[in-house]
């Protein structure tokens, strides 16, 4: 009875810690903690099924469809656990020069949960890159060129969204225009931008003209932009095999970037100085820009290839290692891969024929990194094709939405997926009680001790970290997961964060505590800082 009371939060709202966002910008460290409310009422209840069905503990379950004011082609999880999204105008048409929205999941899925604001920067953010920075703001780079109507050419703008004011402002622009770029934030706070298209238009002189931003750039706060002229490449992030299109790039444990080109070729980019790019001898099976990849463990990436081939790419050593893993059951062009709170990967949406109805997929799948096997998961109500997105939320569920602009459907809506770990294992389909976290830090330096207090009676079996997501176009480049070794003494959990900021990049992470029933707590937002950058 005592144990059940300790877990009596049940499936609940995203616990928004009142002073969290303000604390993220101060000099708080281990001594700065936040108490988690024990009586939180479910505010996502209307977005959850009343019962998940007899296999919910194996497959998970979807909630009902709910409306979005704009198509969420781009999503980023903010430090205060809201979601900033953009991509179209309020009619679902290409036109992110006009609107963006902020969704508060704890307020549910009605119109009152969304704050829709006019984009007054003059930048069309359609198909831009975005990333949550360690200072709590969101950097947005590039997008479409807009001169009263979309042109499908790139722009060179940098914009910054501040969740404290919900304001979007223009900042110092890049040297190259970029449509479909990738943005990677380094532990130093520098921002590396790769790829993107400059121009894609016909003219009176050429039937069809294309130009690509095949030279990376780096932004250093306080110093501005520099061009990596010695790292220019059409193979890594330019014209070859559409490699300019949201290049699959990750910060590697060595401190450089590893790029997996869509044709399977691998590269290492050193962003210091004028840059240095090396093509590696190792290759992965060919893929394309429509198939996702996700970092599910430190330096380990699940990458989907053509003909339903899947591999695990290990970038922890000097030479990456590519190993085959189980094949997903379905070919999912424009599907999304989401790392869950337990480290498994959920794959949803897509179709065999890219961005077309007739062979679209409503069923989803879950990949287990321990076995390499896929298992069927719950069925969605809506098709999620090109310009759809999926992202883990702090309560352990996944929001999935969008699709269209262009497409056979204009999906101004979303659905919530509730993974198996949220349900009782008795086949009742009921949500399981959640272990309660009573206190946890808001901010810690890499290498520091993490102290988490749980409610009396909670026996912790896992302590996991999942990096706050930033997703668009079937690629969530911010996804990272790690399980921490810990010890429990009474109600206190103690663990040591990795000291290597290349393994644990500074920024916002979700902390989950799993109980002895395999059920996760509500995710607590933790800002990890770089001790070398203090002061």
Verbal overview:
Strand 24 and strand 25 (300-304) form a beta hairpin. Residues 1-32, 34-43 and 202-208 have low confidence and may be disordered. 3% of the residues lie in helices and 39% in strands. The strands form eleven sheets. Strands 7-6-5-4-39-40 form a six-stranded antiparallel beta sheet, with no helix packed on it. It is mainly beta.
Sum up the structure in keywords:
3% helix; single chain; 535 residues; mainly beta
Mean pLDDT: 91
Principal-axis shape:
globular
Structural class: mainly beta
Instruction: Work out the radius of gyration.
Output: 22 Å
Low-confidence stretches: 1-32, 34-43, 202-208
Count, helices: 4
What's the main sheet like?
A: 6 strands, antiparallel
What percent of the residues sit in helical stretches (DSSP H or I)? under 10%
Strand content: 35-45%
**Measured distance between first and last alpha carbons:** 49 Å
What is the number of strand segments?
A: 45
Strand order across the largest sheet: 7-6-5-4-39-40
Summarize the structure.
The protein has 535 residues and is mostly beta strands.
How would the blueprint of this fold be written?
Elements: H1 2-6, H2 20-23, E1 33-35, H3 56-59, E2 61-62, E3 66-67, E4 74-77, E5 83-86, E6 99-103, E7 114-118, E8 129-132, E9 138-141, E10 144-146, E11 150-154, E12 158-162, E13 167-171, E14 182-185, E15 191-194, E16 197-201, E17 209-212, E18 217-220, E19 224-227, H4 234-237, E20 248-251, E21 257-260, E22 265-270, E23 276-283, E24 293-297, E25 300-304, E26 310-314, E27 321-325, E28 336-339, E29 345-348, E30 363-368, E31 373-379, E32 388-392, E33 398-402, E34 413-418, E35 437-441, E36 443-445, E37 449-454, E38 460-467, E39 470-472, E40 475-476, E41 481-483, E42 486-489, E43 492-496, E44 507-515, E45 524-529
Parallel strand pairs: 36-45
Antiparallel strand pairs: 1-35, 2-34, 3-34, 4-5, 4-39, 5-6, 6-7, 8-9, 9-12, 10-11, 12-13, 14-15, 15-18, 16-17, 18-19, 20-21, 21-22, 22-23, 24-25, 25-26, 26-27, 28-29, 29-30, 30-31, 32-33, 33-34, 35-37, 37-43, 38-41, 38-44, 39-40, 42-43, 44-45
């Amino acid at each position: 009875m005592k144990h059940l009371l300790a877990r009596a939060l049940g499936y609940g709202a995203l616990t928004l810690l009142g002073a969290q966002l303000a604390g993220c910008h101060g000099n708080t460290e281990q001594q700065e903690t936040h108490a988690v409310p024990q009586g939180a009422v479910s505010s996502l209840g209307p977005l959850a099924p009343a019962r998940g069905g007899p296999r919910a503990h194996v497959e998970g379950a979807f909630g009902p469809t709910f409306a979005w004011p704009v198509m969420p082609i781009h999503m980023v999880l903010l430090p205060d656990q809201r979601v900033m999204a953009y991509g179209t105008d309020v009619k679902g048409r290409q036109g992110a020069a006009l609107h963006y929205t902020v969704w508060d999941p704890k307020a549910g899925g009605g119109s009152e949960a969304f704050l829709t604001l006019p984009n007054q920067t003059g930048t069309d953010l359609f198909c831009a890159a975005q990333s949550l920075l360690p200072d709590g703001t969101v950097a947005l780079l590039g997008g479409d060129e807009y001169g009263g109507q979309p042109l499908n050419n790139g722009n060179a703008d940098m914009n910054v969204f501040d969740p404290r004011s919900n304001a979007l402002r223009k900042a110092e622009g890049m040297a190259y225009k970029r449509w479909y770029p990738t943005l990677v934030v380094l532990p130093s706070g520098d921002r590396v931008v790769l790829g993107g298209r400059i121009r894609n238009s016909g003219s009176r002189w050429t039937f069809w003209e294309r130009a690509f931003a095949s030279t990376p750039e780096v932004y250093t706060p306080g110093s501005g932009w520099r061009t990596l002229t010695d790292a220019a490449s059409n193979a890594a992030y330019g014209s070859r095999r559409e490699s300019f299109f949201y290049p699959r790039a990750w910060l590697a444990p060595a401190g450089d970037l590893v790029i997996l080109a869509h044709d399977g070729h691998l590269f290492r980019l050193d962003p210091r100085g004028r840059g240095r790019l090396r093509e590696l001898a190792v290759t992965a099976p060919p893929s394309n820009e429509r198939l996702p990849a996700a970092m599910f463990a430190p330096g380990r990436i699940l990458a989907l290839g053509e003909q339903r081939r899947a591999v695990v790419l290990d970038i922890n050593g000097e030479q990456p290692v590519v190993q085959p893993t189980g094949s997903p059951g379905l070919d999912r062009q424009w599907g999304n891969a989401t790392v869950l709170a337990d480290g498994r990967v959920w794959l949803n949406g897509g179709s065999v024929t890219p961005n077309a109805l007739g062979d679209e997929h409503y069923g989803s799948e879950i990949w287990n990194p321990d076995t390499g096997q896929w298992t069927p998961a719950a069925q969605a109500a809506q098709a999620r094709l090109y310009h759809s997105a999926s992202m883990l939320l702090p309560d352990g569920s996944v929001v999935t939405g969008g699709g269209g602009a262009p497409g056979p459907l204009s999906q101004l809506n979303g659905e919530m997926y509730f993974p198996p770990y949220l349900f009782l294992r008795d086949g009742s389909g009921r949500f399981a009680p959640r272990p309660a976290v009573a206190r946890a830090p808001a901010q810690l330096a890499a290498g520091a001790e993490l102290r988490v207090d749980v409610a009396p009676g909670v026996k912790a079996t896992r302590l996991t970290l999942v990096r706050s997501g930033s997703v668009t176009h079937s690629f969530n480049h911010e996804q990272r997961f790690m399980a921490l070794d810990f010890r429990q003494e009474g109600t206190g959990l103690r663990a040591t964060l990795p000291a290597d900021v290349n393994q644990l990049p500074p920024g916002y992470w979700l902390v989950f505590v799993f109980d002895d029933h395999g059920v996760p707590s509500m995710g607590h937002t933790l800002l990890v800082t770089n001790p070398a950058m203090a002061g």
